[in-house]
Amino acid sequence: MSDPLPDTLEKLACGSLIQHGPASDRIYLMKAAPDFPAHLPDDLIALARARGYSKIFAKVAEPQAAVFLAKGFETEANVPGFYSGRDTALFMGFYLNPTRRQEAERTRIEDILQIALAKNPLVNLSPLDPRFVVQDCEPVDVTAMARIYREVFPSYPFPIHDPDYLLKTMQSHIAYFGVKADDEWVAISSAEMDVSASNVEMTDFATPPRWRGNHLAQHLLARMELEMKARQIQTAYTIARAMSAGMNVTFRKAGYALGGRLKNNTQISGRIESMNIWYRSLVEAELR
User: Fold this and answer.
1) How many CA atoms lie within 13 A of 185 on its CB side?
2) Bridge partners, residue 225, by sequence
3) Which of 5, 82, 158, 255 is most buried, with most CB under 10 Å away?
4) Residue 2 pLDDT more than 50?
5) Could you tell me if 75 and 149 lie in one domain?
6) For residues 20 and 44, is the Cβ–Cβ distance under 8 A?
7) How far apart are the first and last CA of the chain?
8) Residues 77-114: pLDDT tens digits?
9) Are 141 and 254 within one domain?
10) How many CB atoms lie within 10 A of CB 149?
């Protein structure tokens, strides 16, 4: 049986951007139009019911959230200063199937979170082994980048396995970073920018198993933060796999605060996983 294809991006008539499909079995309201109509929550619920999806995940500015709350959406996480350093973003869930909210591995998820929260933020990073070099990815690198993503993630919410997708997004709104050893890419990550709202999602971290244990994600994140601050981005956040101790510890050590957890939210490598939200102000941060 083949792994599910990434879900579909669609711009609604009101100008809001959603992603939806059977892979993550959900609708994701990625960006609500500033003046979206009051019936948008009803429209999303109707679409979810028509397609048989079991969850709607909506990212909404707090001043716009009342119409979602009135329709039964629940706040699962929040990121202060998400919109231009001012308004808080609410990450909201609406469950069409009550079993979707039940986390089969809740105890393990909570244990991993406590491991991460017990870590103290690093004041300074340990030096990177001299054989490793952190650098920006360029258009000529997309084939090698896709190869790493295919190795690490058999399936993913977005088509990062496709070099054409990587090139298109690199030329529009995503900055890609990587680590090389002996001229070979050994780790990749991305910073997906919303310049109009001055926020960035630190995401798509991929290190093949043979290169793990070298703290490459920590050094990638530090480089990403420096670049985003130079671009005047105010708020950084991530949507991290709740079952990944490594990624949650990485963001905790980098000084990110916990914003909450999205239950059974995202399909990665063939299974629906819960995701933790971590965030940090790049304006206030003393970068490492």
Assistant:
1) 25
2) none
3) 82
4) no
5) no
6) no
7) 45
8) 999 999 999 999 999 999 999 999 999 999 999 999 99
9) yes
10) 22
